[in-house]
Amino acid sequence: MVFASPKGSTSPRSTPAEPATVMEFLAELPSELSGAIFAHLPNSDLKKLRLASRRFSKIVTPHHAFKRVSISASEHNIQVFRNIANHETFRHDVREIVWDDARFTVSLEEESGYHGGYGYDAEDSYSEDTPVPDGVPLWFASGCRENVDYLRKWRGRDFETLPQHVETAQQLAAQLPLDVAYDYYQELVWQQEEVLTTTANNTAFEWALTEKWFPNL
């Protein structure tokens, strides 16, 4: 049985469905408006948005600019450098190439400045209640401890909920056991030596300049 609506009555208006999340709301904005918003965001935030979803990756990528690229004795860094050089959008924004000559040290015990500059002492670097795992040199354990102490003191009297301190707390909570960290460090040192032996960093640098992959340097 069908009942007709009383004469003069109106059916309730249907309201448009609202985006379920802020992310969906941003994704559905006109490109002119979303572009105006993304223009105020740093690259670090744009990178996170790109990784949020494939849809966001397509929307955000045109606004993710690389003004500076670096190259170092790292296989991963060299691959990133080449990927940016081969990207038709990113490569045109690059204005500067930074040559990073920082190196992982095989043994800080060989660095005379470490003893005085960092307060390293093989006798008292670690107390008995914090033993160093077998195979881990004392200079590495001491350096890790100093890094952790620095992160803990860095917050000072700031609120713990500030974004930079939340990130620090996450780093402290996710720190690796010393023996695992040292194994990873040795892998990085090995990769560094491979790059230096093959001069892969020099080759990538010369390739980028010779082929003019960054026309706006």
Automatic annotation (TrEMBL):
Pfam families from the UniProt entry: F-box-like
Domain of life: Eukaryota
F-box domain residues: 23-69
Designated name of the protein: F-box domain-containing protein
